[in-house]
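Reading a protein record of the kind used here takes only a little practice. These numbers are not coordinates but entries in a learned vocabulary of local backbone shapes. Here is one such record, which you should read through line by line.
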Amino acid sequence: MLHLRNLIFLFPALILPLVSAPQNSGTRPLLMKGDTLIYTLPQFEKQFLDSNLQLLSQKYNITENEAYIKQAKIWDQPVINFEHVLYNPQRKTFFEIGDSSEASAQVQQLIVIGGKRSKLVSMARTTAEIAKYQYFDLMRSLKVQLRSAFYDTYYLIEQIRVYDTGISRLKDIVKGYNQLYPKGLIALKEVVRIKALLLSMESERLDIRARLAGNQNTLKVLINDKTTHFILPLPDLQACRDFTPGRYTLEALADTAAKNRYDLLVYEQKMKYAETDLVYQRLFNIPDPTVSLGWDQNGSFVHNYNYVGLSFNMPFWDRNRGNIFAARSRIAETQADCRNYSIQVYNDVAENLGKLDDIDRVYKSTDTGFTDDFSRIVQKAGESYLKREIGLLEFVDLYESYKESKMQFLQLENDRINAIENLNYVVGRNIKW
């Protein structure tokens, strides 16, 4: 009877903490060695904007294309020609100098007319605008990746909390059972069942840790962090939970996307570039004159002949018809691409709004306190088990149901936040939370 009494005192210390897992979402880091960096989402995004190397690279691309605007404004270089007699066969002299020698000099300047240079500048500006839009579109893509990893990390840590508490208590139970089984106080099937549950939970916990490590890698790459610090997210969950997607209509969001999706604006700029290029190709039929100023010492009808000249190509054979036709085709191509992408953007918004509505409907219909109620039920089941009113297998089944429901609720909440972020992504800006 002494051993049975010890067993009864042993179970409350082992079982009840197992079923009384903490329900609060604290910020204390778990499973970490070394320093921890705690970030709110705005803080992390600021660090991202200041440090991300992909954005820095794209900024250099903008600077490069802005330099091409300046280059397009610059006139062509003047051409200077100078000639001097090399060898006079009559006098058998090299580089003869004097009034009887021959030398000439000429300066030529190409003058671009017809508005060609302004069109080149316009196309360079359009290319620079495309580079800017590509920068903001890259930022949009990286931000959704950042936010997804940020929230995923938080919820993976919350899942690990549940597993850590359960695994710790199960290990204590196994340790106690290993002492009680040789004395015949515990059936072998109960020991095996607890050990099987412990192995299952440790295996599932390893999978979560692997996903957490992947998210840490993603977050560190985004902020150019090469340290061993653990990044601990601190999200504003209340703002996420209070968000109501029903107040946004599809048409309003699609209109917002049409104005804010930089990838769509890139297509519009490509269409503008093609239209300007068509005008530029037509202007090639206007010949650009070359003005010449020159001097010739003895090669003309007078000594020290000074002259001015004008030359230009005559557009007889080559009227640039091929390039004009190609430019027209590019306009039609870019218009078709732009229309197609506009349809894709609209359908992206419709798809993601529908997904968010579905997830939000399930989330709002779920009692957020049901896991607390379940925890109390499992706790009472533990007390019933102590009194041998229920068997260990029934208690373990209850605990597994509790664990699964807790995991599913955390995943549902994370899926809902990711659905909000995906909607932000396809709209092109953060809709108000």
Notes: The CA atoms of residues 15 and 118 lie 81 Å apart. Strands lie at 36-39, 79-84, 87-88, 93-94, 103-110, 230-233, 290-296, 305-311.
